[in-house]
Design goal:
Blueprint lengths: L4 E4 L7 E4 L8 H14 L1 E4 L6 H9 L4 E9 L1 E3 L5 E4 L5 H8 L14 E10 L7 E5 H7 L2 H7 L3 E4 L1 H9 L11 H4 L5 E4 L1 E3 L6 E3 L5 E2 L6 H15 L6 E4 L6 E5 L3 E5 L9 E8 L2 H4 L9 H18 L13
Parallel strand pairs: 2-3
Antiparallel strand pairs: 1-2, 3-15, 4-17, 5-6, 7-15, 7-17, 8-14, 8-16, 9-10, 9-13, 11-12
Length: about 325
């Protein structure tokens, strides 16, 4: 482990760069050091790893059960021989989903079991744009005034991608469709607290993002204003925001329990190929409830009511309150 070096990001409240290590062949001592750094910094940048899909999944399994592993996140159709060809139309559901991910979020809060951590590895990058940004909800919570901390301490919000796609970009995906989209746009909404106590460090952090809506007990306008103000506060201090300028071979690994992230726009006619792995959370701390739980009905009702309102509010957004044909 003599060559491993962990360097905190200069001028940031979180994040570190890790060098002198090969993620494919970690020793137990190296993994222990990386795990400690992960809990301290929340986001780790590993330059020059050049992971393939299998290696990405293998590293993810070191952290727990995978939600998915080594998934190609490309804007091109994949051929049977593993090569890539036609670039997806910007009107397709795949690209609509990618565009939606350009808004601040944490992964899988819209599922019964929210994600523990995730990683991206760069294979093909674009010349301009296409970065990924990360933001520190732990430092943001610490920076809140006491009145706001007291106000939000007992509040929760529903989380749904059907909501966030509609609200942010005017996309109304079909609920319970076929394939992967049926697991993402499923018509459920899960209630999660605005303040999360990190299950491993015990440190409180904000837990908001684009999927959050409908705080029970607050009028709609007040709920929307509060959620927006909290996200805006997280990213208002440049010390709490980091932008990854991708180079082929880079890997970034982050803690979904307190780190927000978002993709940045690029020329969607240009090929871009990333590899993603996502680790499921511990049910003891990341489970909201399952659809068959009686509590789920309130989320479904809140989502249906919100979507009905949004259909008239978001016609001026990118996708004009439409559903993708494919």
């Amino acid at each position: 482990m003599g060559d491993l070096r962990i360097t905190p990001l200069e001028g940031k409240t979180f994040g570190a760069t890790v060098t002198g290590v090969e993620l494919r062949t970690l020793s137990s001592e190296e993994f222990a050091a990386i795990r400690a750094a992960f809990l301290e910094y929340g986001m780790l940048v590993f330059p020059g790893q050049h992971l393939d899909e299998a290696a990405s999944a293998d590293f993810g399994r070191l952290w727990g059960e995978l939600e998915f592993g080594g998934q190609a996140l490309a804007n091109q159709r994949k051929h049977k021989d593993g090569s890539y060809g036609e670039i997806y139309d910007i009107e397709s559901q795949l690209m609509r989903t990618n565009v939606g991910n350009e808004i601040w979020h944490t992964d899988s809060t819209y599922k019964p079991l929210s994600s523990k951590c995730a990683m991206l590895s760069a294979v093909i990058v674009v010349e301009e744009g296409g970065q990924t940004e990360f933001a520190d909800q732990r430092a943001a919570y610490a920076g809140l005034d006491e009145a706001t901390k007291k106000r939000i301490a007992v509040l929760s919000a529903y989380h749904s991608t059907n909501y966030s796609q509609a609200n942010d970009i005017g996309d109304f995906p079909q609920s319970n469709g076929e394939g992967v989209y049926g697991t993402v746009y499923h018509g459920e909404a899960y209630l999660r607290p605005l303040v999360k106590i990190h299950p491993e460090t015990g440190i409180p952090n904000l837990f908001v993002g684009r999927h959050a809506f409908g705080i029970p007990g607050l009028p709609r306008d007040e709920s929307r204003a509060l959620l927006k103000s909290l996200i805006d506060f997280v990213v208002s201090d440049e010390r709490r925001v980091y932008r990854q300028e991708w180079t082929p071979g880079d890997t970034v690994f982050w803690d979904n329990r307190f780190v927000l992230h978002r993709a940045r726009p690029y020329d969607y006619s240009k090929p871009r190929y990333m590899i993603g792995t996502r680790v499921a959370g511990d049910p003891a701390t990341e489970l909201a409830y399952y659809p068959e739980d009686p509590r789920a009905e309130a989320g479904r009702e809140a989502l249906a009511a919100e979507l009905e309102i949004l259909r008239n509010e978001v016609k001026d957004r990118r996708y004009g309150a439409t559903t993708a044909a494919r």
